Amino acid sequence: MPTEQDLNEAYWANRYRQNQTQWDVGAATEPLKAYIDQLTRKDQRILLAGGGNGYEAEYLHQQGFTQVFLLDFAAEPLANFQRRVPDFPREHLLRQDFFSLTPHRFDLVLEQTFFCALPRHRRAQYARQVFDLLVPGGKLAGVLFSEEFEKEGPPFGGTAPEYQSYFEPYFRFSHFAPCYNSIKPRQGRELFIVLERRERMQFLA
Ligand SMILES: C[S@@+](CC[C@H](N)C(=O)[O-])C[C@H]1O[C@@H](n2cnc3c(N)ncnc32)[C@H](O)[C@@H]1O
């Protein structure tokens, strides 16, 4: 099982350098675009965590969203993004470890192939960190794989009940269902989630 060291910044930076980026679809994906298209407040603070080359950040920027932040600990994708979107505010590019991000407060965190890239033992910590980064009532939205994979990850798969156990203490489930508009290779293999941050953590029986 890969450890944190195995999936550190050097590991991911190397994957970008060697063009081993099979997750990268080269554009904002349909489920994320459709979700973004129904957002109305253009000044909400939005975080793309483990956002890689940042196609959704680019899309948001093009649509006039002004408070978009792209975070990744690998330098390569952020440099690629800067070359592609030179007018994106430099201070909104956060090159750091997601788990060390403080004290930002966001209205929305968008998820796509970041959760599945983390070592499995960090999943509960991810849920907690998103809770800490969101304002009360803020949302975590995006896609999660809905199946286990035969090959050792990343990506690491999972199941709806497993995910529920991580997120329930911190979020209300506004939407948590099979994704109907996944990109072709991910069809039938993703959940679309919209989770609303609870006011405070809830201890569940
Ligand atoms: C599978 S890629 C997904 C990139 C992007 N979300 C996409 O859909 O194209 C996972 C990304 O998460 C980044 N990453 C992994 N662990 C991280 C961490 N702890 N903090 C910040 N970035 C991280 C990697 O550098 C990589 O860019």
TrEMBL record:
Keywords: Methyltransferase, Phosphoprotein, S-adenosyl-L-methionine, Transferase. The keyword Phosphoprotein applies. Transmembrane segments: none annotated. The keyword Ribonucleoprotein does not apply. One of its GO terms (biological process) is methylation. GO terms for molecular function: S-adenosylmethionine-dependent methyltransferase activity. InterPro entries: SAM-dependent_MTases_sf, TPMT. This is SAM-dependent methyltransferase.
